[in-house]
Amino acid sequence: MKKLLNGIANVYLFIALVGMAILVVMMFYEIIMRYFFSSSMVWSHEFFSFLIVWITFMGFGKLIVDREDIMITFLVDKFNPLGKRIMGVFNTLLLLGTAIVMFYYSIQLTMSGFARTTLIMKAPMAWYYIPLALLMALVVLTSIYHVIAVAKGHVDIYHPEEGDHS
């Protein structure tokens, strides 16, 4: 399952990097057109917002799978190995529950977004919400993997470099 999660995360990262490249090129073009030719693409602001949403949520997917998100561990570090494992399962179950709820509501939000369009581009608003649903799906899968791996003692979610035997 770890290989599947890494594969999905790499696809998300690729989407984020392509989005970043498009954003940089389009912003450069927009700046040149605006300041040197007094012309501007009317739809650029909406498009840039759309790209930033996709870049943010798709890029964060890679961080979640690689466990590079911010974690405060000063209290957990005081526990013995069994206590750390119990807290790891508990914390991961909390994350899993939260991710399931967010996944459910992000699907609802995405579905409702197909009925509305953006003001200028006339693109479905759902395109702003799809990356959140995709990220939450990945967080759910990653959390399921982590619950199992932490319970078996294969992963130390608090110190990834020390305890990742998967």
Automatic annotation (TrEMBL):
A UniProt-annotated Pfam family: DctQ
Protein topology in the membrane: Multi-pass membrane protein
TM segment ranges: 12-35, 47-65, 86-107, 127-148
Keyword annotations of the record: Cell inner membrane, Cell membrane, Membrane, Transmembrane, Transmembrane helix, Transport
InterPro entries reported for this sequence: DctQ, TRAP_DctQ
This protein's record includes keyword Phosphoprotein: no
Predominant subcellular localization, coarse grouping: membrane
Assigned protein family: Belongs to the TRAP transporter small permease family.
PANTHER family to which the protein is assigned, alphabetical: 2,3-DIKETO-L-GULONATE TRAP TRANSPORTER SMALL PERMEASE PROTEIN YIAM
Protein known as: TRAP transporter small permease
Organism: Allobacillus halotolerans
